């Protein structure tokens, strides 16, 4: 029996889509795992946090517009775009993500890379929490158990980091208040923003590139407004926008910008399950790269917490909540 042209084309499209998903997932895994290291390597302490975050948002816009133009959707999306829809879909999440990124930049400089990566995974718990509050999405018993494992891992990491010096050689109090606390608050904000984005997507479908542009523009405006009163704003006016920058500072900024675009693509094409695998794989990439380039083996607390994080994320992704069918 001959295969129809339509069936053959469907198989080709499915194969191409699968290859695209694998490419985006692998790139995001490597970016997630490498980002904490290159941020500490190439971003000097003198760099004003707001300047790196603002530059990253601008880079996201440039990359997103380029990719939209390349795939031929820029003109169509620009004609359909309205300010009201943009503010509803992207305004508040963008402001939240901008604050989250600033907190992450602070945490990068004061935490061990692997510890940062694992604590950063608590955003799954907060995402689940806000999904229930905003979208009324319930969790299965297995998922609740997985979230408890994640909390235990976070506590272990907090104890470990609070009782010893951080990777940057700072005091325990500095590590706790400028490393652990910022990344945990950033995780809360990430969960809230992620839930708001999903709520917005159910009202109106958005291109991942368009969402990136909208959120980055709003984020830039919020950052500019904050400079009028913030210490970073005073530092910029006193020392200049690129104070403390070197040519190498652009490496983590561009990497972070491309990572933001990849997050949208992975979520759009593969969904949350594949993104969960990406997160787990990124933990292993961070640990491997830290050992290879810095010669520093993970601490005992990290070794205990790492399997807890991996198990919790895997269980959470594998056992979603299912509505029981009523018997007739």
UniProtKB/TrEMBL annotation:
GO CC annotations on file: Golgi membrane
UniProt cross-references to InterPro entries, sorted A to Z: EmrE-like (IPR037185), Nuc_sug_transpt (IPR007271)
Membrane topology: Multi-pass membrane protein
Any one GO molecular function term: pyrimidine nucleotide-sugar transmembrane transporter activity
Sorted UniProt keywords: Membrane, Transmembrane, Transmembrane helix
Localization: Membrane
Pfam families found in the cross-reference section: Nuc_sug_transp
Residue ranges crossing the lipid bilayer per the database entry: 21-42, 48-69, 81-98, 118-135, 147-164, 176-197, 209-228, 248-269, 276-292, 298-316
Protein family (similarity comment): Belongs to the nucleotide-sugar transporter family. CMP-Sialate:CMP antiporter (TC 2.A.7.12) subfamily.
Listed name of the protein: UDP-N-acetylglucosamine transporter ROCK1
Annotated organism of origin: Rhodamnia argentea
């Amino acid at each position: 029996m001959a295969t129809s042209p339509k069936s053959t084309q469907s198989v080709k499209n499915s194969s191409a889509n699968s290859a695209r998903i694998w490419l985006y997932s692998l790139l995001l895994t490597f970016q997630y795992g490498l980002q904490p290291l290159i941020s500490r390597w190439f971003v000097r302490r003198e760099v004003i946090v707001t300047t790196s975050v603002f530059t990253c948002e601008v880079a996201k816009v440039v990359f997103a517009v380029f990719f939209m133009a390349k795939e031929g959707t820029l003109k169509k999306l620009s004609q359909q775009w309205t300010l009201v829809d943009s503010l509803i879909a992207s305004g508040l999440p963008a402001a939240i993500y901008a604050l989250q990124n600033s907190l992450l930049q602070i945490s990068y400089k004061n935490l061990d890379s692997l510890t940062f990566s694992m604590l950063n995974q608590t955003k799954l718990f907060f995402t689940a929490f806000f999904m229930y509050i905003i979208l009324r999405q319930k969790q299965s018993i297995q998922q609740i158990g997985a979230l408890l494992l994640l909390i235990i891992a976070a506590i272990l990491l907090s104890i470990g980091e609070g009782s010893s010096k951080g990777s940057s050689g700072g005091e325990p109090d500095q590590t706790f208040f400028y490393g652990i606390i910022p990344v945990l608050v950033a995780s809360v904000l990430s969960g809230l923003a992620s839930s708001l984005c999903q709520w917005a997507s159910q009202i109106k479908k958005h291109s991942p590139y368009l969402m990136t542009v909208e959120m980055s523009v709003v984020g830039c405006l919020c950052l500019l407004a904050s400079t009028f009163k913030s210490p970073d704003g005073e530092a910029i006016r006193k020392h200049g926008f690129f104070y403390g920058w070197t040519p190498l500072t652009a490496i983590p900024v561009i990497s972070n910008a491309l990572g933001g675009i990849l997050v949208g693509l992975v979520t759009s094409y593969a969904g949350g399950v594949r993104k969960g695998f990406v997160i787990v794989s990124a933990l292993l990439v961070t640990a491997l790269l830290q050992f290879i380039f810095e010669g520093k083996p993970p601490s005992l607390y990290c070794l205990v917490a790492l399997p807890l994080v991996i198990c919790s994320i895997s269980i959470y992704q594998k056992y979603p909540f299912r509505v029981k069918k009523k018997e007739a």
